[in-house]
Structure prediction request, 437 residues.
Amino acid sequence: MEKFFRLQENGTNVKTEVRAGVATFLTMAYIIVVNPSILSDAGMPFAGVLFATIMVSAIGSILMGLVAGLPFAIAPGMGINAFFTYGLVLGMGLPWETALGVVFISGIVFILLSIFKIREMIVRAIPAAVRHAVAAGIGLFLAVIGLTGVGFIVANPATIVSFGGLTPQVLLFVIGLFLTGFLIIKKIKGALIIGIAVTSVLAIITNSVVTGQGGEAFVYMPEAIFAMPSLEVFMKMDIVGALAIGMILPVFTLLFTDMFDSISTFVGVSEVGGFIDEKTGEPKNVGRALLVDAIATTISGIFGTSSGTTYIESAAGVEEGGRTGLTAVVAGLLFLPFIFLSPLLGFVPAVATAPVLVLIGLYMMTPLVKITWTNFEEAIPAFLALILIPLTYSITQGIVWGFIAYTVIKLLLGKVKEVSPTLWVITAFAIVSLIVG
Prediction:
């Protein structure tokens, strides 16, 4: 183990790496419940998606540790799962099987782009301001999903949306939000998963009071605690349907959303942990890491979940001293025992996961500080991308209009040379997508 992971060379040891792996797992364990709850809105069975989530997280993280040698963990990405459910399935009306086919195909494209190093070229061509704004826009989108899911925000014909009132579920949501926020402020490891657990218990108590007074139940207790893994969504992707011409835009959008997410994470966590190559200025082993990320997306389609991607929560393990792939391997292995707990985890109510969605939305706001808002050449496209994602309930629309606005503004200013050939191609795809859509 010492020789394979080069622990001494990296100034670490087994104890430190294990502790770092546990820290990483605790900060991202919420995905075990949150991802199936989001994808179940697309009509997918909770237990099947839970199994897929765990397998992608475990395999992806272990591969990252063994192949790339980095302490970065992988799991189905937040934001990407929202696009899968509310963009592809509910928005475009695709069967979830076809949407899984889109995930699988985008993974294959990922692998090819990573092998031929085209992926990095595409990312470099995309304006940084638009990339940062898209990440934040997805965060706002997740927050809106959380707020509407518990009735905090409701539809209103006069004002489009409005406050839903202080119902028992809204009150529970507020308590969960403040409690989880407090734990985060105090830097308690596993704050999100603790918040989900405590809010779930409070929901059980509140539900019994509400039903005792003749009200409608919103929590349903599990009939069992343990069960064998569910294979309901395993190998159910519709590849033929996903290869139709009309699927070019979904694959395109999924590709870019995942690229933004993974590249931003690699750079951010690498800077925190000092994993930057002094010669190139890029994250160490970035080629291998991107390839593993692409493989994680591919197996996501096979197991039955939205795309896997590298998690920014990996920074927790780095802060604990994690410096090698052993950290990622430990984090991946810790997912596996939860395979048999689908009945217990399946009862977790929306009111317990909604605070997490809002707080993850908060996490995703940090890229906005990197945008120079006084430079309107950059700020206008960025703002459009940021605000259109939640307001149109579509990640695609935010990305498309961000690209178009940036290119048109540069064209009008006579700064055509600042638009790379790659970005011209991307913008052309964006315009075609609007016409076809």
